[in-house]
Amino acid sequence: MLALKRIVTVAVMVYLLIAVLFLLFPAVRTSIAGMGSGAPGPYQERDFFMMLCWIGVVVLGLHLITENLDSTLLRRNAAQQDNRINELKAKLYDVQAPATRPGTTPVAPAVAYPTAEETRLRDTPSSSVPPTTY
Asked: Which residue among 7, 16, 45, 81 has the highest number of C-beta atoms inside a 10 angstrom radius?
């Protein structure tokens, strides 16, 4: 696709250069217009410009089609690669996730931290603990 796009782009550039040549130099235009035509002078140039216009329509239309086709294919390719990246991320997450079965309760941590009341009772001797009254 890239080769076709480049060929069409080069054809458009060549066409534009030739069209500018014909528009800027009247001697070239009249000599080219009179090459294969048996019509009188003004009709030769009219036919020449009409043919130049139709060639331009075809070449520029082909250029438009190839550009749109190329951008569509690039967008589709990028979307496929994004989907593939997301699939690989999901697989990596599944491998790294902890293996827990649904419906099971989580296990308490191996180290339990004491509450404030347990710490107070542990730090004070048992005979000197005053009763708590509120």
From this structure: 45
Tell me the average pLDDT of the chain: 82
Q: Which amino acid is at 116?
A: A
Q: Give the separation between CA 2 and CA 87, rounded to whole angstroms.
A: 29
Residue 21 C-beta-side C-alpha neighbours within 13 Å: 10
Long-range contact pairs involving 10-15 (C-beta distance under 8 Å, separation at least 24): 11/59, 11/62, 11/63, 12/59, 12/60, 12/63, 15/55, 15/56, 15/59
Where exactly are the structural domains of the chain?
A: 2-96
- CA–CA distance, 111 with 109 (Å, rounded to integer): 6
Q: What is the pLDDT of residues 10-59, one digit of tens each?
A: 999 999 998 888 888 887 777 777 776 666 767 777 888 888 889 999 99
The Cα 62–Cα 116 span in angstroms is 81
**What is the rounded distance in angstroms from the CA atom of residue 67 to the CA atom of residue 62?**
9
